[in-house]
User: Fold these one by one.
Assistant:
Number 1:
Amino acid sequence: MRSSAAGEAIVTLPPRCAACNVRDDALCATLEDAGLVALHGIGRRRTLPAGQVLVWSGDPNAICATVVSGVLKAMRAGPEGREHIVGLAFAGDFVGDLFADTANETIRVMTDAELCVYPRAALQKMLDAHPAMERLLLHRALGALDDARMWMLMLGRKAAGARIATFLLEMARRMGQPGPARFDLPMSRSEVGALLGMTIETVSRQMTSLKRRGVVALPGGRGVIILDRAQLARAAAG
Amino acid sequence: MRSSAAGEAIVTLPPRCAACNVRDDALCATLEDAGLVALHGIGRRRTLPAGQVLVWSGDPNAICATVVSGVLKAMRAGPEGREHIVGLAFAGDFVGDLFADTANETIRVMTDAELCVYPRAALQKMLDAHPAMERLLLHRALGALDDARMWMLMLGRKAAGARIATFLLEMARRMGQPGPARFDLPMSRSEVGALLGMTIETVSRQMTSLKRRGVVALPGGRGVIILDRAQLARAAAG
DNA sequence: CGGATATTTGATGTCTCTCAATCTGTGTGG
DNA sequence: CCACACAGATTGAGAGACATCAAATATCCG
């Protein structure tokens, strides 16, 4: 029950939550102040450097988390031990599997990131008392399913050029500000390949091709500037 | 509250539900008798012939359903209007999107099928009163996500032969009885191609190759007999 | 049995992977 | 401040797998 005016609530809320940039998007958004205090009680804020692993595939599935900032990837091992990226998580997203006892995906931080990490068991217990939280998780699961099916469509049918174009548009949507279409990719060429199902060389060639045609500029190793969005969209459809 | 002994419950339950083969697997399994009567009240049993469309992509998203028997596919349009299969639904599965206002997938019946069809709005309303139902839907959504990511891995990394082998094992698991590894595919070669991201010709050639190597037999157009499961599994891993 | 549809088989081309070398940019130590 | 070293990225040449186009069967159903 929301028992106090805003000015008072700030006193009772954990300071980190009151100032949190994903306070209204993430799991927390579903909770009234008392619930938020409880969630904060079971969770722990962690800052992880790029490359750090949050969950190892095959290990006991002990934790879930809310992404506060940064980008994470979920990976599964394909044949020959090669790893493929099967999902990305951005600020506000929920990562981890609430119900599996053994993790079947490795979750790794791609850029420096802040997370709110929760023990899975405790979070599961909270779920029973907070139907709105469960509803949000259902929404998120369906959103992730939608994403996965979008990638399926791409992996199954699109040529390399169209994959790269689709990928750039998707990254621009998720990372870029509304204004200028300038952003940094949160991952290396090798990781782009692991997501799009192609080799690093093919990724590079397609990027270069877009650059030569004046569709994008590629400043530095990770920078992207979309110069001609219409043509990029056309390339993504083909 | 489960208020009566089994013998009595049969009287109050709709006859179709009492005798239903997915009574303990599907959405219905989460409901006590009174809830089941309510669910039956908003739903309608429909028998659909193979090829029938349940939901058109782009149309208002009006219904969801439980699959009682048969197999359904969820499709999305790729480039050039070609359609790709992004999900399958078997007996006991839930199909449809509870929250989208516009359907973004076409759902089509692959074999003759029986469904319990529910208006989306009414089902959504029931959800608030039945947390167990919501929990099951969350489980199902995560299961579908797991499936989608499995297909992603396949589409991204596996060669044609490995895709076919994986597909056959998966179909055997979902359709076959425990005993003899004999079953009929619920779909045409063309649909297999639309699921695995390859042409009908490549599907055919890979099937023939497995047949020639004595791994499977292919009686009739749709029949499959797995003769050497170990070798099929080996082919699926490659 | 006959026609339509689905599947198999064949010949050829193209795209992407593989292997290999060069280049760029990033960070370090002199 | 510059030279150097290293990892990541780009570019090139060649081979292989799958797509495409085209034809010949097989299967299904009335």
Number 2:
Amino acid sequence: MILRSFLREKLTMLLKEIWNIETSIPILYPDQPKFGDYSTSVAMSLAKTLRQKPLDIASTLAEKWEWTDICRLEVVAPGYLNFFVNESLLDTLIQGKCLEDQYGSSDLLEGKKILLEYVSANPTGPLHIGHGRWAALGDSLARLLRYAGAQVWREFYVNDAGNQIRLLRETIQAVREGKEIPENGYHGAYITDVAKQTEDPVTYILNWQKETLKNFGVEFDRYFSEKSLHDSGMVQKTLDFLKSAGVAYESEGALWLRTTDHGDDKDRVLVKSDGEYTYFAVDIAYHQDKIKRGFRHLYNILGADHHGYVKRMEAAVWLLSQADGVETDFRIIIGQLVSLYRNGEPVRMSKRTGDMITLEEVLEEIGRDALRYYMVMRKADTHLEFDIEEAKKQSEENPVFYVQYAHARICGILRNLPSNLPVPQGTIVDSPEARLLATRLLRFPEIVQDAATALEPHRIPQYLEDVASVFHKYYTVHRIITDDLQTTANRATLVKATKNVLALGLRLIGVSAPERM
RNA sequence: GCGCCUGUAGCUCAGCUGGAUAGAGCAACAGCCUUCUAAGCUGUGGGCCACAGGUUCGACUCCUGUCAGGCGCACCA
């Protein structure tokens, strides 16, 4: 049972029944225990439309509230409804739902087939820290969406065709022959290494990227080759389709797409006057392919350095959908850039300088858990300031260890548990601190749903820190293992539920939950 | 010049799609281990939520404008 949904459902019902109105009902987590475990301000927002005092509306709702076996309800001026979860229900949930392997999962997004595209770096150089962020975000998001019931297919679009690739090959060729690197060629230190390989440079670099991502715990269901779109004729097919749909037109020797029909500043070129396809055209073919494969929910994580591309792509997918007669849900998540520092000194991230720090290096230096945590702990659309030395220096007091420590601490307790414990019986939530912890644990499914629907993975670490904090406080005040076996068994259950939530939450962001630290 | 993102404690950032006295972690200071992991806990100080208007019973949250920073504005990818 997801309590918040239950409350919302019943309130919706009552509003319909009493006043015959429908409205969205905000359910909040009050910041003070005396205001309940959940609360709503719906009575205040309805005051105007119902022409009644908020307090009267709240009172009427309270009178009709018949689910006191779930929560009791208080009316507080100027019109809040505060819900207190019933103690025995808390006990039941803690030793039931909260201990389940799949606790927090739901069927909220049941039936949705989502294609999630992320990273999609050019195979012309090693991945940098920014890619690390999109990778961690994408992977976590995939886990979240799946946990919320969606079918998620993860793709990395490999730009293995076009100018950049040609330039890379020319660069490598030149280095191998001891010639000068061509203008606009690649100059990174890694070029020398790549040139030494007998393998094709593109294949080599792509495998290198795959290896890094694998070490980072980031997986894909498919690496989709851009070149394959050319080879199969998909690009041409898509262009013909757009032409026949009347949304592409020729002008000045080029083929254009009417992206201005859907919010873009100017129409965009699909085929250049020299006959070559633009990157845009091929990308449209890729998205047409996604649609043809039956996906209606297309989510892309894009680096902020490419956000200028968003409008035209949205227009393109819209035009495709119109022409295809299908409805698509196309969303672009902009991942802001990561500013990398070392001891306060900015570190260059450019692919061309050769003086960069790669994702691989950062990963080796600070470790997978810490890096993944740092990359998803902030909202995707805020710039991330990341100091390598600080992440290491703080490694004893930084958030990822704080959360992991709570988990390890619980494991320690569980190892010390007497073997002859009875089954939990009677009151489990036996103190204000226990109550605080228990009600936090009940939020887990709600947080997962919020994070999934808002496409905001950062809510998970945020929540986990909250849980860890509440647990640590509980731990310092109460002993779990006591002389009384029944009490021990009961408290151990609460602690196990906490461990379960921490472990599940950490898994959602791809961070390990260690048994010992 | 135009567009997108950001502006909250000294620093890094949350703030639950408009609600109750604005939060956390670092950093500073003062305390707490003969008892399950002190990588923890408790307390103190620190804020005109960039600024100015507006909408609202109610704004950090929504709208407009200004300022500051980041990133983009190709028949590149």
